[in-house]
Amino acid sequence: MTSECTEWTRQDLVAFADRLLDAALPWASESGARITPPGASGGYGVDIDGLEGFARTFLLAGFRIVGARGEGVDHLIDFYSRGIAAGVDPEAPDRWVRLDEHGQAKVEAASLALILDMTRPWIWDRLDEVTQQRVIDYFAPAVGDDTYPRTNWLWFRLVVQTFLRSVGGPWSQADVDADLALHDSFAREGGWLSDGDERSYDHYVGWALHLYPTLWARMQGADELAGGRTVRDTALLDEYLQDAVALVGADGSPLIQGRSLVYRFAAAAPFWVGVLAGVPSVSPGRLRRAASRIVEHFADNGVPNAQGLLDLGWHHEWRRLAQNYSGTGSPYWAAKGLLGIALPADHPVWAAETEPLPSEQGPTLRAVPAAGWVIATTDDGIAMIINHGTDHALPGSLAGDSPLYARIGYSTATSPLLNGDAWQEPLEQAVTLVHSDGRATHRTGMALLDTRVEGGVGIAGSAAAAHWIAPAATQVRHGSGIAGDVTIAGHLTTWSVVRGAWEVRLVRIDSLEADAAPTALRFGGWAIAAAEATTDEVAAGRASVSADGRVSTIVALTPGGAPAIAHRTNASPLGDSAAVPTIDFPATTGEWVAVAVHLGGSAASAPAVVIDDHITITWPDATTTDFTDARTA
To answer: Most buried among 19, 153, 296, 385, using CB within 10 Å?
Structure first.
């Protein structure tokens, strides 16, 4: 953990923003309408790359202009005004891709509209009438377009139409009402929102589904459309942020979970939004610390790159982290994490007393019932989640496990493995039945049994139809797991009991299909990655992997476990060499099998379990926990 609450100042954040803009602008087209950073084009082509580069850096430039109240930023005002004029000119060779030409333009239009509203006195009001009308014409296809995905994309249509309404353009009250109702349908317990109807909980909850309501409410004319909802939206944001601040590591790393991780410090956005909204339950000093520490974390780890650019990766370029739609301009959605620079130097947040993060204060536990998570922070300053309810799918579906969503654990110090094998055969932070040909089962579609914190421990559990998948030849990588032919292997019940850095994982094979004949019940621990080889240790009933001060340990707590280490190369954005400690047990039905899983520094002693009519866990400090699966009590 950090021992002092030092953090970047506003001046540091502004300097970082200026560095990003100074490096990006030279990659603009002659008229400035497109900014196309170097590198292999994304799945949507170079025209979309250029539009993304302009629109997403415009977010950052807009925050910079607003925070400076338009003073000393004439170069940004002039550059982006010129680029807008060319982008909406139908005859310009580098004009923007239109909303009715490609769906991605609908995403970028929202950034354009949002910043045109925020910077109205300095950019929109100074555009000539022809350009203003062309901007209106460019945005107009959003009206009545019912092809927007029923996810966070609803805000892209809503933001654009709110801007159109404010400048005398076309808009639809029916669209506004439908979009707000759709957003409300995503609301879940504790201020969380699902990104669509599936169990999709990730950074989009903060950097999209909570960000846009607060920024939208401040757009010109939005109060006339809001119908008094802003108080309710702020209350939901307040609830969410109480969990979100516990998901930032003491080193500033956000949770490495979910899609679009190439947006990196966009994870800081909801904390700045909390400042803007004036949430009551998390102090401005803690919100500022969370946001600034996230940005600083990436700066300390080589972001931006040597050219001053945001590439596709985490601490460094690693294109496997990107979805297939990600292009060279995509990472600049990270600009959302610098929303704080839109707050002028005299805003009270900059003078607020710093309050440390939960991860800087020792072990804590929180339950997130909506996502099926237990959040735990450790003595080592790591924030982690134990997951039994999020899989980027609908309950009961039989798809592949997405490494980004369906693993049992995620943390701020480890990454899920993301090579091809990881999508086809779950390994790290998984419980699987192993086929005779080596394939491992998936658990997507699992039923969440419970998520709670009581008696000083976190408890979460799920029941799953463990299934093997023969992958289809063509896959679409938007975050969900692989598709293919499914074979049910059996039914598993899994419980996690969490205390500090230890998780006791209890598994029972409830039934096996008649012809399944799995060769093992496999438990996987945390994946550790390093630039060079990891240090491995296998002993009786125990395996561990270590690198760079991080140790992943798994210990058999019931007899019959065979420990091993699985190695992968080029499978993690955190290092070329990755390893996972595992333990295999015989695949026997009707009996509880237990392991202890640990992440942090060295783990000298492990918990112990006694299993009879109920389960008693004795932790390393001799504290005991009694556990019973209520379904079989």
So the answer is: 385
